[in-house]
Write a structure and sequence with these properties.
The chain is of the alpha/beta class. It is built from 16 helices and nine strands. The chain has a single domain, classed as 3-Layer(aba) Sandwich (Rossmann fold), CATH 3.40.50. The chain is 44% helix and 15% strand. The chain has a nine-stranded mixed beta sheet, sandwiched between helices. Strand 4, helix 4 and strand 5 form a beta-alpha-beta unit. Helix 10 crosses helix 11. It is globular and about 55 Å long. The two termini are 27 Å apart.
Length: 380
């Protein structure tokens, strides 16, 4: 497969599609209120009412569409599906190739500010010698990447990524970074192709297989307790997406209000916003992401990684032997201690961050870019 098969991509949503969205928003059927204050029972009704009014009547999609199109994007067939990607060429003489993989409920768009910092460090006071050739693909079934027809999807996403980077783009050696779903994909990529992956940088770590009687440190036991508490209090979405994704998808694919409620609650709960959604995301940022999910009708296919891993992938994990760095943000979903990560990865850098949450590339792009740059500096 030649590199010339990349096709430039331009986003354009038709006026009938825009009007259909606005009509649905204006005719939202509101649920009977649950008399619980604020966000205690889920997405706050007042926040939903404000966002839906703005989405229907004042949100300017064309401005956001133009901003998306200002980023160089392409599509290319990989493994039976057409994959969408952003490609940012690095400045200087020898940029290092790096693959950035997003998670859920994110899209490629969350990573573009981070990508620009990595590709063009001199714009931000950095050294051009630290630049990267940045590739940001959309996960299959997310945004403008096609879903794969098989169940489970084959080949697995990490193999698509290696084909993209090595065979199509021609990078013999490259780095990888990911958080959330992207951390799992990137970890499997590094485990499967250590000859090509120079280094692995993560925001989350895969859990090691630990025997019931295996001795654990106090910090590891505290981490497992925190993880269990998180699953009990926050994990309902994950269980539903793992076990009955198609049932949920019918409502969220038909109702933009339902779609927004499902994802905006995560933006607030998982970010370092102190309970104030606007401290981490503007309304335009929230609604641009929601609009991408809506116009591409990909909320259903965005659930597939959860369901497929739950059914088919739990026994497929193996240790990562390439150099690995992890940035631990204080308001992320989990904060694994160093020795827990070392059970599964050849850890060479562990960075506790002073602030930031699950959406670190959006919330703290400077902190994250600095850590990625420092990690890969010795691997160039």
């Amino acid at each position: 497969m030649s590199r010339t098969e990349l096709e430039p991509f331009t986003l354009h949503v038709s006026e009938p599609e825009l009007e259909d969205l606005r009509r649905r928003l204006r005719h939202t059927r509101w649920p009977t209120p649950i008399p619980a204050p604020g966000w205690t029972a889920g997405t706050e009704p007042e926040t939903m009412a404000r966002l839906l009014r703005y989405w229907a009547d004042r949100f300017d999609w064309r401005i956001q569409e133009a901003a998306v199109n200002a980023v160089p994007q392409f599509t290319v067939p990989v493994g039976g599906a057409r994959i969408h990607l952003v490609r940012l060429r690095g400045e200087g003489g020898r940029p290092m190739p790096i693959l950035l993989t997003h998670g859920w409920p994110s899209t490629f768009l969350e990573l573009t500010r981070l990508g620009d910092r990595l590709a063009n460090p001199s714009r931000y006071g950095g050294d051009p010698a630290d630049s990267f050739d940045v590739v940001i693909p959309s996960l299959p079934g997310f945004a403008f990447s096609e879903p794969r027809p098989g169940w489970p999807a084959e080949p697995p996403t990490h193999e698509l990524w290696h084909t993209l980077m090595h065979d199509i783009l021609g990078y013999q050696r490259y780095g990888a970074h990911g958080g959330d779903l992207g951390a799992g994909v990137s970890s499997r990529l590094a485990a499967a192709h250590p000859e090509s992956v120079v280094g692995l940088h993560l925001l989350a770590a895969m859990n090691p297989p630990v025997a019931p009687d295996e001795p654990l440190g106090d910090d590891e036991r505290a981490h497992l307790a925190q993880l269990a508490q998180w699953h009990a209090e926050e994990g309902g979405y994950e269980h539903q997406q793992q076990t009955r994704p198609a049932t949920l998808a019918h409502g969220l694919s038909d109702s933009p209000a339902g779609l927004l409620a499902w994802i905006v609650e995560k933006y607030r709960a998982w970010s370092d916003c102190g309970g104030d959604l606007s401290a981490a995301f503007t309304d335009d940022e929230i609604l641009t992401q929601a609009s991408i999910y809506w116009f591409t009708n990909t909320i259903a296919t965005s659930f597939r990684p959860y369901a497929e891993y739950h059914r088919f992938g739990r026994d497929s994990w193996r240790r990562v032997e390439v150099p690995t760095g992890i940035a631990v943000f204080p308001h992320d979903l989990t904060r694994p201690p160093r020795r827990w990560v070392e059970r599964t990865y050849r850890l060479t850098r562990y960075t506790p961050m002073p602030r930031g949450g699950h959406f670190a590339a959006h919330e703290e792009p400077e902190l994250l870019a600095t850590d990625i740059t420092a990690f890969f500096r010795d691997l160039r």
